[in-house]
Design brief:
389 residues, Aspartate Aminotransferase, domain 1, Aspartate Aminotransferase, domain 2, 2 domains, 7-stranded mixed beta sheet, 4-stranded mixed beta sheet, 15 strands, globular, binds pyridoxal-5'-phosphate
């Protein structure tokens, strides 16, 4: 086997997996790995989840795709379930996180044009990640993602994450702001938690200026933080929510949910997707929601607390660790120095994890962990970090 026929867009590790079960993966040599990354917050129910597997197999034998030229009852049912769970009114379906955010960006621009704005502008954050399409990489606050793809799109203005005053200044200076697009907790940015009251303060600003508050919950959604959506830890409701990654446990899907005045902005002919919300993806998402709503996202809360406090204890006094932070099963361990070899050392020890921003160890384990598996994860991670030079 060789990867010579692939565009070299990824720095892949030298391992390939053949099958999985729960939190475990088995490679082509028969070696077992503890998967504390879940395909980057995707397989939250673990691998080969029986409920999702049955739903996908049944749907594959029944009907996979018809296009959005016709009604799709499973998509309608999924839209109702998601809107109900998120306190939103309407859904648009695509196939990825980037597409969900594209839909939100288009929605915000159209909302602006309907108000007579010529250059509708969206406030985005430093350190944000929203995807790799042209609009979403422009919204992303990371030069590495943008470099070489200029010209970037117009219509974005950036503020430091967590800084309400900076957004207030933008409100004073910029005439045609229509929306804020942001992650409730920054994932790729290094599990960055905003200060208390941040979402509430931005909600107030949005209300004062009739901006849309658009939350990218592609990583924080799907129960990962201990609520189905991260904003449900607060008292506010956004106008737009984007969801992808974990909502169909590995079957590609992206959703843009909208509420109130945002719900009816996109109309006939404004947006579309051939695959979006097809019967296969909808069936997988419905089965995933069944499991998440059956007590699993609440479990993410207690598992997260158990793992974070276990790590605090096991790494107490370690001068390699600056901070352990996160919410639910979105956990970051900020190291005092970059650890370029850590992902490989973890792999060699039979553990899959990720390091983002060079020195934040990121754990995104599945929500189905047993307590014993959670404790095993703490032990494995602490051992690796303690062994750093
Ligand atoms: C992963 C991610 C995206 C992009 O999702 P894709 O499915 O890779 O397009 C967007 N926003 C956030 C917060 C993400 O974590």
């Amino acid at each position: 086997m060789t990867d010579a026929a692939l565009m070299q867009t990824y720095g892949r590790l030298p391992v390939a997996f053949e099958r999985g079960e729960g939190a475990w993966l088995v490679d082509t040599e028969g070696r077992r790995y503890f998967d504390a990354l879940c395909g980057i917050a995707v397989c939250g129910l673990g691998h080969a989840h029986p409920g999702v597997a049955d739903a996908v197999a049944h749907q594959a034998r029944t009907l996979v795709h018809t296009s959005n030229l016709y009604r799709i009852p499973l998509q309608e049912k999924l839209a109702e379930r998601l809107c109900h769970a998120a306190s939103m009114d309407k859904a648009f379906f695509g196939n990825s996180g980037a597409e969900a955010n594209e839909a939100a960006i288009k929605l915000a621009r159209l909302y602006g044009h309907k108000r007579g704005y010529k250059q509708p502008t969206i406030v985005v954050m430093e350190g944000a990640f929203h995807g790799r399409t042209m609009a979403t990489l422009t919204a992303t606050g990371n030069r590495k993602v943008q470099a070489g793809f200029e010209p970037l799109l117009k219509g974005f203005v950036r503020a430091p994450f967590g800084d309400v005053e900076a957004v207030r200044r933008i409100a004073g200076n910029q005439q045609e702001v229509v929306a804020i697009l942001m992650e409730p907790i920054q994932g790729e940015g290094g599990i960055q938690m905003p200060p208390g009251g941040y979402l509430e303060a931005l909600r107030t600003l949005c209300d004062e200026h009739e901006w849309l508050l658009m939350l990218d919950e592609v990583q924080t959604g799907s129960g990962r933080t201990g609520r189905l959506f991260a904003y449900q830890h607060s008292s506010i409701l956004p106008d737009v929510v984007t969801v992808a990654k974990g909502i169909a446990n590995g079957v590609p899907i992206g959703v843009c949910l909208a509420r109130g005045k945002a719900a009816d902005v996109l109309g006939p002919g404004n947006h579309g997707s051939t695959f979006g919300g097809n019967p296969l993806a909808a069936a997988a998402a419905l089965a995933t929601l069944d499991a998440l709503e059956d007590g699993l996202y609440a479990r993410a809360d207690s598992l997260g607390t158990r793992i974070r406090s276990g790590l605090e204890e096991a790494l107490a006094g370690s001068n390699q660790v600056v901070e352990i932070r996160g919410r639910g099963l979105m956990i970051g361990i900020e190291l005092s120095a970059p650890a370029p070899g850590l992902v490989r050392q973890a792999l060699d020890s039979g553990l899959l994890l990720n390091v983002t921003q060079e020195r934040v160890v990121r754990l995104l384990p599945p929500l189905i962990l047993t307590d014993a598996e959670a404790d095993d994860l703490v032990h494995r991670v602490a051992t690796l970090i303690r062994a750093l030079p």
